[in-house]
C-alpha cells in the first residue's frame, strides 16, 4: 500500500503532469473530435480524480487510525485500558468479537474477551484450549469466521470473529492488525506481569511503613508475648497463660488470672523467659511437643535468628489452629476458611493453575484472615458502630496478615495472596487499590471465594442468601469486583461448588 506521502505525490504531481501531457498531445485532434465524445473524456478523468481522492482520504484515515491506536497503547497504564484499545482494533477490522489466549501450563487460558456489539449474541469461547486449537489460523464458530494473530514466541494469540468473511492473511488490513496486536500483546503481558514503577513504589512505601509499624508492635516484648499467648490460648483452649520475664523481672498474665487447672511450664529459648500454660485438662504429648516447637520457633522466626522448614511448618500449623479458633469464637464465621478453600481450589483447578500456585491457594485460604488475630478480632465482636480508626484497622488486615506470614513466604508463597485478597478488579478494593491484572490471578480467585462464602453465610444483620441468589449477585460483578475469567470459571463449576459447600452447610438452599 502506498504511504500518505507517496499518495500525495501521485495526486499532486504525477496525475496533473500525465493529464497535462495527454491533453497537449491530443490538442491537434480536438477540432476533429465530436463535442459529446470530448465530454465523455472529461467525465472519465473527473471520475478518476474523485476515486483517487477517496483513496487518499481512506489511506489517510487508516494511517491516522493506526497512529491513534499506537498512541493509546503507549498511554495505557493498566491491562483494562489496553483491552479497550484492542476493542478499537476489533472495530477497525470490522469484527464483532475478540479473545486473547495466553500460555498456561500445558494449555492456553483465556486472558480477556471483548464483544463490540452489545446486541450481538456472544460467541462461545472456552476458558482453556489446547495448543493445536489455539494455533489454528482459520475456522468458523457458528456464523462467524475466525482469524488468528499469533505472537512470534507463541505465548499469546488473538482471535477475531467476523460475520461476513475472514480477514485475508495476504491483505493490508491483516498486516496492520498483526503489527498492532503484536505490540498490544507485549504491552498487556508486561503490565500483567509486573506493576508500573510508580505503583510498585507506592505499594512498597505503604507496605514498608505498615510492616515497620506492625513489626515494632510485635518486637516490643510485651506485645510479642501477647501475640503468641493469644495464639496458644485459642489453639489449646487454655484458661490462662503466664509469662515470667526473668531478665527484666516482669510477669505478664493473659486470660483468666489465677485460673484453676493443670499448669505446664515451657522455657522460651534465647529469651530468658518461662511460660506457664493453664488448661482444664492435661495437655497430651502431641500438644506438648507442638507447643514447645512453636514457642521456640516463633521467637526465633520473629527476631530472624533462624528459619527452617520444620519451624515454618510448626509456625504455620499454629496459625491455622489460631485462625480456626478465632472463627469458632464468632458463630457467623464457622467453617469460613474451609468453605473459602473448597471454592478457591475448585476454580483454580478449573483454570489449570500450576500445581505450586494451587498449593499456595490451599494454604492461604486456611489463614487468609490471620491479620484479624490481633486488635482486629476485638473489633469484630463489637455490637456498636465501629470507629473510623477501627475501620481502618480492619481494612488493613490483609497487610497485617501478609506481615505475619512473612517468615513463611520463602517456603509457602502466600504473602501476596493474603495481601491482595480484598482488592477489586475495577480498582475499588483495599488496602492498595490495585486494578485488573495487577492483582495476581490466585489472589482474585481467593477474593471471589471469600465474597461468595460471605453471601451464603448468616450474619448478625441478615440471613445467608440461598446459593442461586448469591451466584446471581457475584455474576453481576463480572468486570467490576471480579475478573470475567474468574466468573466464567465459576459458571462452569457452579453445580460442583454448590455440592462442595453443602458439605459444610447442609442447610444451604439452592
Outline the structure in words.
The structure is a single chain. With 510 residues, the protein is α+β, with helices and mostly antiparallel strands. The longest helix is centred in the N-terminal third of the chain and has 41 residues, at 35-75. It has a six-stranded antiparallel sheet. Strands 8-7-10-9 form a four-stranded antiparallel sheet, with helices on one face. The protein contains 18 helices and ten strands. The chain has four domains: 4-74; 78-193, 2-Layer Sandwich (Beta-Lactamase); 198-306, Beta-Lactamase (2-Layer Sandwich); 319-510, Orthogonal Bundle (Hypothetical protein af1432). Helix 2 packs antiparallel against helix 3, helix 8 (285-302) packs across helix 9 (309-329) and helix 16 (441-456) packs across helix 17 (467-476).
Amino acid at each position: 500500500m502506498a504511504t500518505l506521502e507517496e499518495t500525495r505525490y501521485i495526486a499532486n504531481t504525477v496525475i496533473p503532469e500525465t493529464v497535462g501531457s495527454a491533453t497537449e498531445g491530443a490538442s491537434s485532434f480536438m477540432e476533429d473530435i465530436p463535442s459529446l465524445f470530448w465530454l465523455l473524456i472529461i467525465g472519465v478523468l473527473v471520475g478518476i480524480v474523485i476515486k483517487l481522492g477517496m483513496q487518499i482520504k481512506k489511506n489517510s484515515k487508516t494511517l491516522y487510525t493506526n497512529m491513534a491506536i499506537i498512541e493509546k497503547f503507549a498511554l495505557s497504564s493498566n491491562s483494562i485500558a489496553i483491552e479497550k484499545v484492542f476493542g478499537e482494533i476489533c472495530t477497525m477490522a470490522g469484527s464483532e468479537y475478540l479473545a486473547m489466549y495466553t500460555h498456561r501450563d500445558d494449555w492456553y487460558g483465556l486472558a480477556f474477551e471483548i464483544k463490540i456489539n452489545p446486541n450481538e449474541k456472544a460467541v462461545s469461547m472456552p476458558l482453556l484450549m489446547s495448543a493445536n486449537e489455539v494455533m489454528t489460523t482459520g475456522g468458523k464458530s457458528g456464523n462467524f469466521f475466525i482469524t488468528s494473530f499469533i505472537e512470534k514466541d507463541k505465548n499469546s494469540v488473538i482471535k477475531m470473529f467476523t460475520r461476513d468473511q475472514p480477514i485475508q492473511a495476504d491483505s493490508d488490513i491483516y498486516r496492520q492488525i498483526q503489527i498492532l496486536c503484536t505490540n498490544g500483546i507485549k504491552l498487556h503481558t508486561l503490565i500483567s506481569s509486573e506493576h508500573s514503577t510508580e505503583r510498585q513504589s507506592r505499594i512498597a512505601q505503604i507496605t514498608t511503613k505498615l510492616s515497620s509499624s506492625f513489626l515494632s508492635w510485635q518486637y516490643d516484648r510485651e506485645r510479642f508475648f501477647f501475640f503468641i499467648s493469644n495464639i496458644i490460648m485459642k489453639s489449646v483452649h487454655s484458661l490462662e497463660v503466664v509469662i515470667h520475664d526473668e531478665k527484666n523481672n516482669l510477669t505478664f498474665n493473659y486470660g483468666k488470672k489465677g485460673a484453676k487447672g493443670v499448669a505446664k511450664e515451657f522455657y522460651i529459648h534465647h529469651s530468658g523467659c518461662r511460660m506457664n500454660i493453664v488448661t482444664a485438662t492435661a495437655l497430651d504429648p502431641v500438644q506438648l511437643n507442638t507447643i514447645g516447637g512453636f514457642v521456640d520457633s516463633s521467637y526465633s522466626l520473629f527476631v530472624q535468628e533462624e528459619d527452617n522448614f520444620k519451624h515454618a511448618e510448626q509456625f504455620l500449623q499454629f496459625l491455622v489452629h489460631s485462625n480456626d479458633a478465632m472463627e469458632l469464637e464468632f458463630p457467623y464465621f464457622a467453617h469460613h476458611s474451609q468453605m473459602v478453600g473448597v471454592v478457591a481450589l475448585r476454580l483454580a483447578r478449573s483454570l489449570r493453575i500450576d500445581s505450586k500456585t494451587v498449593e499456595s491457594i490451599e494454604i492461604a485460604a486456611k489463614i487468609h484472615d490471620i491479620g484479624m488475630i490481633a486488635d482486629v478480632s476485638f473489633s469484630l465482636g463489637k455490637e456498636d458502630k465501629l470507629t473510623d480508626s477501627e475501620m481502618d484497622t480492619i481494612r488493613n488486615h490483609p497487610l497485617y496478615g501478609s506481615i505475619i506470614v512473612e517468615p513463611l513466604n520463602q517456603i509457602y508463597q502466600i504473602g501476596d495472596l493474603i495481601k491482595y485478597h480484598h482488592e477489586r478488579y475495577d480498582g475499588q478494593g483495599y488496602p492498595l487499590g490495585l486494578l485488573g491484572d495487577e492483582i495476581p490471578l490466585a489472589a482474585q480467585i481467593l477474593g471471589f471465594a471469600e465474597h461468595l462464602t460471605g453471601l451464603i453465610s448468616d450474619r448478625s444483620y441478615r440471613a445467608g442468601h440461598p446459593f442461586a441468589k448469591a451466584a446471581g449477585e457475584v455474576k453481576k460483578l463480572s468486570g467490576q469486583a471480579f475478573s470475567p475469567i474468574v466468573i466464567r470459571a465459576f459458571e462452569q463449576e457452579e453445580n460442583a461448588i454448590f455440592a462442595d459447600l453443602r458439605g459444610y452447610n447442609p442447610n444451604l438452599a439452592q
